[in-house]
Automatic annotation (TrEMBL):
<keyword id="KW-0812">Transmembrane</keyword>
<dbReference type="InterPro" id="IPR046675">
    <property type="entry name" value="DUF6545"/>
</dbReference>
<protein>
    <recommendedName>
        <fullName>DUF6545 domain-containing protein</fullName>
    </recommendedName>
</protein>
<dbReference type="InterPro" id="IPR050039">
    <property type="entry name" value="MAB_1171c-like"/>
</dbReference>
<feature type="transmembrane region" description="Helical">
    <location>
        <begin position="200"/>
        <end position="222"/>
    </location>
</feature>
<feature type="transmembrane region" description="Helical">
    <location>
        <begin position="162"/>
        <end position="180"/>
    </location>
</feature>
<feature type="transmembrane region" description="Helical">
    <location>
        <begin position="87"/>
        <end position="104"/>
    </location>
</feature>
<dbReference type="Pfam" id="PF20182">
    <property type="entry name" value="DUF6545"/>
</dbReference>
<feature type="domain" description="DUF6545">
    <location>
        <begin position="224"/>
        <end position="340"/>
    </location>
</feature>
<feature type="transmembrane region" description="Helical">
    <location>
        <begin position="116"/>
        <end position="141"/>
    </location>
</feature>
<keyword id="KW-1133">Transmembrane helix</keyword>
<keyword id="KW-0472">Membrane</keyword>
Amino acid sequence: MISYLSAALLALIGLTRLMTVRAGPRYLATFFLSMAVGLAVSAEDTVRLLGDELLPRLVTNALQLLAMRALLQLVRSTRSPEKPTPFWPIVLCWALMVLCYLDFAPHRLEAGTSGFQWRFSIVAYQVILTTYAVMCLVLFIRTLVRSAAGRPRGAFRTGLRILICAAVVTIGWALFSGLPSLWLEITDLADLDFMPRARLVGLCAMVLWVLGGLFTTWDGALRLARAWRRIRAVTPLWKELVAAHPQIALPVRHDLEFTLYRRVIEIRDGLLALRAHVPPQLGDWLRTPVDEPTRAAAELAAALVMREAGRSWPGNPAGPHPSARDESAWLSAVSSAFTRSRVVREVRERALAEAGQPSREEPTLKHR
């Protein structure tokens, strides 16, 4: 049951990665899904259902190597320029493991004897599996240590450190469970006691992988939620500006964080394009002092009216320009004032009267 639960959590993390990373490399998703399927196949209930222990182990080991290759791909993707990971090494490992399996599978009834565990195909199988896995994990740990050192405090850095611990424990698991012939020879463990202990070490490693994945995925999910909330906050302002200047709209891309960044740019371009239509007497229309976002919203409301009336005042100075880090929050405040502020409604009515246009009721803006 614990094996299936861990497999389900790993699969959930992998599927979450697939959904959040719609474009680009999906190495971590491949890792988590491969380990999830391998853990489910190697579970005691699955082995008992299949009635054979060697074939599930072969499938599990092949999936584990695929997961290790995904970690190696992740390491190589951090280099500039990115170095592609050739597929032939893992195919060669799989082929050699299958050949070894075909040699020792007919002798499965001899499993547990000294002659079987020191059979050349058994030893070769264990060395191939362990060498490839440990090599990939060592490279992964080196890269992850450098990455974690440069990250600010938070859930993501904590997740990276847990993943480092998971990789270290997995190396121990690979050296222990991948070389049973060696450990059965130098310890007093019986063959029937070895696999339960190997599974226990593997489950400890999987728990750490799950925790690390949850921490890093949770951080990404929070970041996406914040981006979505900010997109909704600036959408009314963005819709008005795109309607006034359709040319500011950039190509659509299905990425929340990039969409937010793109909309901030589009809104900034639209505001700059309307600066020449802001009436210079707008300050006199404000009956009471207002904050900067409300003033910017009032300027936009008046500029839209004057642009429609064909009136402009070139040479208007640019308004306040917050830092890139604070700009989305500032534009959210401007958008809120633009749709809800009584001051902005009064300025819009005053602009309509100044332009000689009839007053009209403010239309309801809906989030897109």
